[in-house]
Amino acid sequence: MSAILDLDQIACSGNGVEHDIETPHGVLHVTMRGVPKGNRPVILTYHDIGLNHKSCFNTLFNYEDMQEITQHFAVVHVDAPGQQEGAPPFPTGYRYPTMDELAEMLPSVMTQLKVNSMIGIGVGAGAYILSRFALNNPTLVEGLVLINVDPCAEGWIDWAASKLSGWTSNLVDIVMSHHFSADELTDNQELIQTYRLHIAQDINQDNLALFCGSYQYRRDLEIERPVVGLNEDTVNTLTCPALLVVGDTSPAVEAVVECNSRLNPTKTTLLKMADCGGLPQVVQPGKLAEAFKYFVQGMGYIPYVLLSHLSNESVPSAGMTRLARSRTTSSSSITSMDSSRSRNNLNSLLEGSATGALDNQAGPQTMEVSC
Asked: What digits encode the pLDDT tens for the residues 159-168?
């Protein structure tokens, strides 16, 4: 398991252009690397509470295999209002945008940057925001990678627990427990100390409290798994391919499984990462880069991508069928793998990296992969 030692050293290669973009709900700080390439979507990221785009994503985007992928795409990193490096405090009486309003800010970003569509990568609160955006603007989103996504509104029990914990815990402790399990908080001291200091010292605490409050009072995404032949055209759910990612010891496991149960199984992959906690993009960037490569290949992009650890061999998207053994044994699921719908699924990780963790229920099932 890799750990970050110094967040100051996490600087993405290449010069990003920073923008402060006016939206209907305030200004968004975004950083764009590269220029849109033809009709290809951009990769747009959105971070979780307690982080900004650098501390959330730079480990992943600095990874060599991910850099090879992003040569084919422009990348747009979005910082939630007031969460970017050096952000000034909001004025007294400022009302922070709701989660719905944060999603409504993104079309202005795409318009100003002259972006036609996106592949989103979101973590936690950012995954919720991108999901809401995709539900509201399905034609603008070609695919979503949702890490630690929670589609549910916070229940009253969770709300009460957070209020009670707030009496004895400070904001940093609450955010840390959002990111890391109790075991991870004690077992991975180097990583934990790095992020505790980052959250406490690099993020404006008043601004962070406002972002946390917005996420705490989110409403349910109200998505529902479609039933084939019954409500496919009317049900409220994501219509784009989705890759759900969670570490096997993450506090978000139950929430991600719940989200998976509400999505179209023919367009959704659930990836559980072994030996991984609440920040898979930080501790397992290689596995996530590999999964992302196959995800975009399944959408018809970059049919050949060289991976540094493959001894200079490139892997064609036509060969993305090794996970047949990890799918359900239902005929409809296996048949769908050879249909056009397979473009919308993650069809492979490298040979031997998937163990398969599936049930044998009838009907099409989400592809679930453990690695």
From this structure: 555 555 554 4
